[in-house]
UniProtKB/TrEMBL annotation:
Organism expressing this protein natively: Xylanimonas oleitrophica
EAL domain residues: 1-251
Residues of the full protein shown: 407 to 657 of 663
Keywords, in A-Z order: Membrane, Transmembrane, Transmembrane helix
Protein's name according to its UniProt entry: GGDEF-domain containing protein
Highest taxon, organism lineage: Bacteria
Amino acid sequence: IDLEAALRRALADEERVFVFYQPIVDATTGRVTAREALVRWHDADRGWVPPNQFVPVAEESGLIGDLGRLVLTRACQDATTWADGARVAVNISAEQLGRGTLVGEVREALAASGLPAGRLELEITETAMFTRAEASTQELAELTALGVRVALDDFGTGYSSLSHLIAFHIDKIKIDGSFVRESSESPASATVVRALISMAREMGLTTVAECVETEQELERLRNDGCTEIQGYLYGRPEPRPQDAQYVQALN
Ligand code: G
Ligand code: G
Ligand code: MN
Ligand code: NA
């Protein structure tokens, strides 16, 4: 059976579809402020299928609706169990945005879990914001009104236009990992990162740097005034405690 059919079945049974969580920490205190929800799927025939492979298939086949609701619902539920009160960040695909369904789904996930809206962040790429831009802008305004935070994901890699930061309701930008990686070797990339952080701060936006793997990167980002840090330096995406044994057995 092909990937799409296998994914359809997995989502229907919610079988071997997991949500992993990666910590996002305050750049100065190192305290966990949020965790990003990252979907994982283990197929009986294929083993672990990378999200880079199955998320696009879900988007093309319409399965992203089911996948998105599964992740959103579970992420909100799981976050209510976190003793540290950290926020949960959920990735929203372009296909979920601007269709008139997202606000209702978010309300439902919040109501079902009892998670306060202020503890939910949605990660949306610039490219996603572009699709059905007008409807997306409206939805983001409604979500912001609920108290949900909106982060611009993979910032700097899309059809970047700084005007988006003004046009859309954005609370934070996630500086793409490629800039962090390049900054160590390229002074130009380091300058771009510093400028982005500085501009975001002047606009009242917070910044998250992704893919931070070394102390040197952390030190530079901290000096640049970056608000939050995400990356293997602090932790990899990990299953929930109650899934850990099952996941271990699949590895
Ligand atoms: O760990 P990582 O390999 O999880 O993620 C690879 C890509 O898949 C990233 O672009 C990430 O944003 C995306 N991704 C991971 N989880 C989800 C999810 O729940 N929904 C969507 N739409 N994308 C996700
Ligand atoms: O597109 P998005 O930013 O949602 O995807 C985040 C991706 O980055 C996930 O695939 C996640 O597993 C990956 N990731 C998170 N931290 C690190 C890191 O420190 N190094 C690398 N190489 N990848 C990371
Ligand atoms: Mn993300
Ligand atoms: Na990202």
